[in-house]
Amino acid sequence: MSEQHRSDLEQRVTALLEAHDPATTGRAEFLRARWDAGLAWVHFPEGLGGLGLPRDLQAHVDDLLAAAGAPDNAPERNGIGLGMAAPTILAHGTPEQHERFLRPLWLGEEIWCQLFSEPGAGSDLAAVATRAVRDEPSDEWVVNGQKVWTSSAHLADFAILVARTDPDVPKHGGLSYFLLGMREPGVEVRPLRQLTGEAEFNEVFLTDVRVPDAQRLGAVGEGWRIANTTLNSERVSIGGQAVPREAGMVGKVAAAWRAAPERRTHGAHRRLLDLWVQAEAARITGSRVRQQLAVGAPGPEGSATKLVFARLAQELSALEVELLEEDGLRYDDWTLTRPEKVDFTGRDAGYRYLRAKGNSIEGGTSEILRNIIAERVLGLPGEPRVDKDVAWKDLPR
Amino acid sequence: MTAQPIPAAPDLDLLPSDVETDLRRSVRAVLAKTCPTEALVALADGTDEVSGPAWSALAHDLGLAALLVPEEHGGAGAGPREAAVVAEECGRACAPVPFLTSAVLATSLLVRLGAAEPLARLGEGTTAALVVPAGTGSAGAWARRAGVEVSGGRLVGEVRGVVGLPADLLLVPVDGPDGAALHLVPADADGVTVSTHTSLDATRSVSDVRLDLEAGTPLATGDQVTAALDHALATAAGVLAAEQAGLAAWCLEQTVAHLSERRQFGRVVGGFQALKHRLADLYAEVGQASAVAAHAAAALAGETDVPVSVAVAQAFCSEVAVHAAEEAVQLHGGLGMTWESPVHLRLKRAKADHVLLGSPDAHRDNLARLVDLPAPTPEAG
Ligand SMILES: Cc1cc2nc3c(=O)[nH]c(=O)nc-3n(C[C@H](O)[C@H](O)[C@H](O)COP(=O)(O)OP(=O)(O)OC[C@H]3O[C@@H](n4cnc5c(N)ncnc54)[C@H](O)[C@@H]3O)c2cc1C
């Protein structure tokens, strides 16, 4: 398949660059032209920034455009929008919703956050208590509740929201999925500081926030199924990029090792080589998962990608701190900042070590991922469930 | 060539005496009062309302600055076992006090050198710090990285990553052509520059020390200094193992408490077998850490089997403390990642403790010599 696709894509990229020379075209104008040419995300349908091509061809387009000095859509500023909201809206949205939301999302004009977790519903996402009640006369929903650990809420224009629309049925069946305007009255965002010192996530209080029924995604009561599309997209997007050998955390550790011969020990050497091999295995497995996705057959390795990624990030960053000896006792800065983007391999070794702790919690904890692999992939029996057939409102809390 | 027999294990009393149990109780009560979580968290923001009161309560109210100072110099004349009890509590509470660095490390060095006058001052609450880079576990390790020399009658050099500052008195070991020497320098003397960095563990600061001042007469010279350094670093490393064991025990207890309360999926989360098994494994590790740390303290007290006991204690307890703290963060979920939570304080302290007096790797390398398990010889060619 791909030779034909590749040369076709290359022609389209050339045509785009000829019609809109990046050197003389403004950033916004270039990005819009790129969208119109179907080169935003080639695996999206025609008319929605794509060409209906296999997903792995996107990297080639990105490389060609970057090489020509074209601006990108600053994907690091809208990770939740691009990685989670967009595939969910595409899969479950109406044509009007596609039309309204996908373009400004991809262009980075509208930033998204994820209002899923609550103080009482983390791993057990289906237990969310935030209520959405239909107001028939206005054809709107009125939302009340509290969300927590919401990354980027302070920057976001819109949120993907899971809320309870029917407390009288068992928990999975009473949820609906909404696209909520974060600038609406009744949305209050409070910074929540994390162990790195920065406040990357937030508490979000929702008080009588109105959401038009046109911003409900999918049917009433379908929220759980749709939320799973979001979560699967999140987990796939982590292994989604082709990376060179020694990219990411392993590169940081390797550099620290090469830089300080006097600090080397036998024990650290063994661990470094062991982790280097594991990082290489993860890189290779990621390539295969990507190839499988491109031909539409995601294999079970995909579910394990995030699990392995988190463990490696943690072990590598831990080793890096140790390799630095007395310098590993330092930290760059505890000042409370509100980062614009998250960079797992940014700042110093201490930061990387601390931030990596979140990798096995955010987007589904490693324990929950193991349950998913064991139950949904390996087909092992589930844990005894006490909450399956009980109306949500009658569950013990 | 006949193989050296490996050192036989001594039979040591690993149970606390009544005195030690009382001591533990009073230290725990004092630290519970003086080290509230909010105050510890605020340290990273540069607000210190905790280290003064906590140290004052330990040093003055309980007299623990003088714990290891011999009676003839006005101290309590206690030993490593008692010091380990205090350190264990400091680890549990994450106390930002110079107990380990001043009352154990610096004091042990001065005791071994019989330095009456400075010891009397330390017993009254004056603090001292040994000016060596963090990660120094023995006199040999120090000599490989010594940063200060005597040149033209002046003490000159820079030492990076010194823990235990601010302190009143600096103990500066110097490696010169005539062997080692130990100089005592008041921290506020002209020619002393201390620059303190932002530290990963805000409950224990890290500084660089620059010296350029008249050397004066050293307190001691020669092999005596090297031997005293080895003794003091071993004592501190053994006592640090107790701090690590205490920290690990706190992490286990806190995590069990949280998971006994937290409900998800209509169940108490601690009831999921996957987590129960992890906590049971951690319980086994924490119990071992406590025993191993008690063994190191008893070995130090009895001056028997010190090198092996201390190397084992550091190699083992460093890892358990980090593991327990990492499990605590993970098993608290999002809460474990938050600034207000007491959990991350332990993670940062455990990670810093891990390198403080020699990494577990360094202690294992040391052990390889002690118990005749040499590393493979590198292949020729
Ligand atoms: C850095 C960061 C960013 C985040 N960003 C967002 C965001 O943008 N939007 C959002 O909605 N959420 C976000 N989260 C929240 C995250 O999804 C939750 O923290 C996570 O799902 C865990 O929920 P919890 O914190 O309530 O932990 P709990 O569910 O209380 O879990 C506590 C511990 O118990 C374990 N556990 C729970 N159930 C089981 C079980 N059945 N079997 C075995 N072990 C179990 C968990 O794995 C965990 O270790 C973020 C979290 C972090 C750390």
TrEMBL record, chain A:
Keywords: FAD, Flavoprotein, Oxidoreductase. Residues 221-378 form the Acyl-CoA dehydrogenase/oxidase C-terminal domain. InterPro entries: Acyl-CoA_Oxase/DH_mid-dom (IPR006091), Acyl-CoA_Oxase/DH_mid-dom_sf (IPR046373), AcylCo_DH-like_C (IPR036250), AcylCo_DH/oxidase_C (IPR009075), AcylCoA_DH/ox_N (IPR013786), AcylCoA_DH/ox_N_sf (IPR037069), AcylCoA_DH/oxidase_NM_dom_sf (IPR009100), Mycobact_Acyl-CoA_DH (IPR052161). The keyword Oxidoreductase applies. Residues 9-109 form the Acyl-CoA dehydrogenase/oxidase N-terminal domain. Residues 113-209 form the Acyl-CoA oxidase/dehydrogenase middle domain. This is Acyl-CoA dehydrogenase family protein. Its cofactor is FAD. Belongs to the acyl-CoA dehydrogenase family.
UniProtKB/TrEMBL annotation, chain B:
It comes from Nocardioides cremeus. It comes from the Bacteria. One of its GO terms (molecular function) is oxidoreductase activity. It is an enzyme of class 1 (oxidoreductase). Pfam families: Acyl-CoA_dh_1, Acyl-CoA_dh_N. Keywords: FAD, Flavoprotein, Oxidoreductase. Its EC number is 1.-.-.-. Residues 20-117 form the Acyl-CoA dehydrogenase/oxidase N-terminal domain. Gene3D superfamilies: Acyl-CoA dehydrogenase/oxidase, N-terminal domain (1.10.540.10), Butyryl-CoA Dehydrogenase, subunit A, domain 3 (1.20.140.10). Coiled coil: none annotated. Its cofactor is FAD. Belongs to the acyl-CoA dehydrogenase family. The keyword Chaperone does not apply. The keyword Flavoprotein applies. This is Acyl-CoA dehydrogenase family protein. Residues 232-369 form the Acyl-CoA dehydrogenase/oxidase C-terminal domain.
